[in-house]
Amino acid sequence: MSPHAMEEDATNAYQSLSETTDHDDPRWAFGTGIVEEAGAEVSAPVPEGVDAADLAAYCLMLGDDALIYSHRLSEWVSNAPELEEEVALANTALDLLGQARVLLARSGHVEGDGRDEDALAYQRSDARFRNVGLAELSDDLDFARAIGRLLIFSTWRLALLHRLVGSTDPVIAAVAGKGVKELTYHRDYAARWTLRLGDGTDESHRRMQDALDALWPYVGELFRTSDEETRLAGAGVAVDPGTTREEFDAVLDEVVSKATLTLPDRPAIGTIGGRGGRQGVHTEHLGHALAQMQSLARQHPGATW
Amino acid sequence: MSVAMPETDERVLETGFDATIAADQRIEPRDWMPEGYRKTLIRQIAQHAHSEIIGMQPEGNWILRAPSLRRKAILLAKVQDEAGHGMYLYAAAETLGVDREELTEKLIDSKQKYSSIFNYPTLSYADIGVIGWLVDGAAICNQVPLCRCSYGPYARAMIRICKEESFHQRQGYELLLAMANGTDEQKRMVQESTDRWWWPSLMMFGPPDGDSPNSQQSMAWNIKRHTNDELRQRFVDMSVPQAEALGVTLPDPELRWNDERKAHDYGEPDWEEFKAVVAGSGPANAQRVAHRRRAHEGGAWVREAAQAYADKQAARKNEARKAAA
Ligand SMILES: [Fe+2]
Ligand SMILES: [Fe+2]
């Protein structure tokens, strides 16, 4: 039987009750320390020779992918199959939300019209969002869908961020530096669950294959290069997503075959006049996600929270 | 214990247990303990774990509508903490010979309870702040003494949990401060939410002492350290100045400082409402349990797959070892 050495801790918990709210505590502002940690400022000057409008748009693309996917992942809260998955999915959503906040803030700053992260997240209509379609789908609480999408998304984004560590934009480089560690974990988590589901029971195998099949049409868009990306890749700010396809295919092929599953052979969803998510042309799903996400903020114009 | 044991041995063990309790030391999982002590702890820890998990629902209700990205991150992190608390507590219960799956079944079959406070709905974003301030606040008053509970694994889990809960309380309060300094509509939301949550928060300490059958034994075993009414009083005294700083009125006309007692007098909560909620007919009881059941049963195929995969991996390893031999 152990003697008790916990009185001190108990007293500490009491003490913290009587403390006043201290705004200096870094934990008050989850997910904002990221840029400071990496030594970059959202207000850093636009790199020489780079078009500010292109940079603002590119930060929105990367930021909106993270913001909208984070929102969809949050739908899992209190609905996951096990508590460990509850924690892991929420953690992934938090990581992506942290990335989104910095990228949106950077975009707003570069744009120069005084819009902050919240103005961009809550006051834009769906046609102004620049995320890919994959980010805006709902998993409809199908865990195989969640895992399939996370595997695809994290493999793709990790490949992008790896290359963006060397971006000439200091904020993008900082987000990428931190994000590589986060995405490595997300991809690992998704890959391990793909193995369990693919090589688990007959039912889980069937569900996992169905999920990959349903998601595959959204893969093509991930590697389509927008005009902004082409120009910014030339300036060393962005990466041409087309250059990550090989790495993506190799990872997916390895994980999927190890999981006794088959890589789907399905055509990509079509564009409208050549325009897709990067140009603000979305699936029907985004409008619903935004209707929910923005409802309260828009009910209270001018309020601060 | 059902295992036949000479009466004298049992008496020796019991004397040892009593001495440990009397010396205010910890009982650990491998130590002998009376069956009643074990049962009481399982019931209490399970109920506590269930509360953490069910409590994710009312707050989770607003994650997708959080009005700023910072608030969304804070709320998401908080609800994630609650899942973590549930995990620590189920693990503490498992040291007493039950498992998480079994306890979850009891929860969704309504054979075990969780804190009644979570049977109230969250109807505005101010509720997120008020839950942090009052509900996490009341939980801390209840739980800090548990950091000195006689059962080691429970006490240790509570130390970790209390630190996070006190952080939740401050975050909730900080949201309310922002809203109380905001638009007229935001101020109105804070008052309306306080009006709805104040009395249910007082009920979190359980029935009045005269009406609390299990309390005495739990106090004798050093599982419980203070009576329900003592804790309730502490909570009221703590909340009054906090309410003043926020500029909200606590909805109790009898609430006033009593200089003789050096404590606040306050009105009687509606114990009929409390009994009804405990008995299952609160505003959201059915919804909460059905939600938990849906998540648990909906995830059965995933847990089965993980088990099947682990079994296959173990068999493969075994075969490889045989082949190598
Ligand atoms: Fe908790
Ligand atoms: Fe909490």
Q: What percent strand of chain A? A: under 5%
- Care to count the β-strands of chain B? 2
Average residue pLDDT of chain A: 91
Structural class category of chain B:
mainly alpha
Major beta-sheet overview of chain A: none
Counting DSSP E segments of at least 2 residues, the number of strands of chain A comes to: 0
Low-confidence stretches of chain A: 1-33
Catalogue the unreliable spans of chain B: none
Helicity level of chain B, as a percent range?
A: 55-70%
Shape of chain B: globular
This entry's quaternary arrangement is: heterodimer
Could you tell me how far the N terminus lies from the C terminus of chain A, measured between alpha carbons in angstroms? 49 Å
Helix-strand sequence of chain B: HHHHHHHHHHEEHHH
Largest sheet of chain B: 2 strands, antiparallel
Mean pLDDT over the full residue set of chain B = 94
Task: Give the helices and strands, then pairings.
The complex is a heterodimer of chains A (305) and B (325).
Chain A: H1 7-18, H2 33-37, H3 52-74, H4 83-111, H5 117-122, H6 133-136, H7 143-164, H8 170-198, H9 202-215, H10 227-234, H11 245-258, H12 284-299
Helix pairs in contact in A: 3-4, 3-10, 4-8, 7-8, 7-9, 7-11, 8-9
Chain B: H1 7-22, H2 35-54, H3 56-60, H4 69-94, H5 100-108, H6 126-143, H7 152-180, H8 184-203, H9 215-220, H10 228-246, E1 256-258, E2 263-265, H11 271-281, H12 285-298, H13 300-324
Antiparallel strand pairs in B: 1-2
Helix pairs in contact in B: 2-4, 4-7, 6-7, 6-8, 6-10
The structure holds fe (ii) ion (2 copies).
